[in-house]
Amino acid sequence: MNKVTPIDEEYIFKGDVIISQTDLKGIITYVNRAFCNTSNYNKEELIGQAHSLIRHSDMPSAVFAKMWETISGGQAWNGLIKNLRKDGKYYWVDAEILPITDENNKVTGYIAAKKEASRKNINETAATYAKMLETQD
Fold it and tell me: In the chain, what are the domains?
């Protein structure tokens, strides 16, 4: 799938909870209707794709490195993420990502629930991420 070019226009995400599920490599295995509506992709375009499909270029790689370290270690991760819609608009979510484990406590995948973030948290996080990007290799 072609990478979307970001435009500097925010899509205001409100209300619904976005749910997605991936395998161990971050390949999407499930999305709910709210995910599709918010990302502007249909389910068929998302299933089987890397979750990074919706990653905005303003997101520092260090944020995702910490997230992967946390969830692959069997722990929950929470943080704000700036995502990219199919139409190029961006949106912010307050995400909680949890490992899915089998009966032997082995991680088999991940599930994410994303909700609306406060404007204050978005502004603070955006400033932090911008500083991180300035020093990112």
Answer: 18-135 (3.30.450.20)
